[in-house]
Amino acid sequence: MSTWPKEELNRIAESDDLHISPFREDGVTYGTPTWIWSVVVGGSLYVRAYYGQNSRWYQAAVQQKAGRITVAGMTKEVAFEPVEGEIGDLIDNAYRTKYKGSPYLNSMISMRARSATVKVVPLTVHESYV
User: I want to staple 45 with a disulfide (CB 3.0 to 4.6 A). Which of 34, 35, 98, 120 is the partner?
Assistant: First the structure.
């Protein structure tokens, strides 16, 4: 799998307009774009589901493992990888920094949202995620 080009990752990190569209059950049709918060930690892009593991987009992302995102004027084909463990603390800190002052911050660093953290990895034109 690819890594994000630095310029793109910087644009994404500065943006607050990420929309995520995991594939539907057919593995071909994109789901309805859902606006979510995103953070960059250690050169990787992470997102969380506000409603935790019950969130529709999260369930689709974990099941289908791929889809696309639209952010900072870009549309990218991506793979989704569930995340757990110590990286969660770094992701929490990134959310605190990026979204400081938001009334939704506490929900996004709660155990409910933290349990639904996904790493978003870019796919090259020739890659597919099976």
Answer: 120
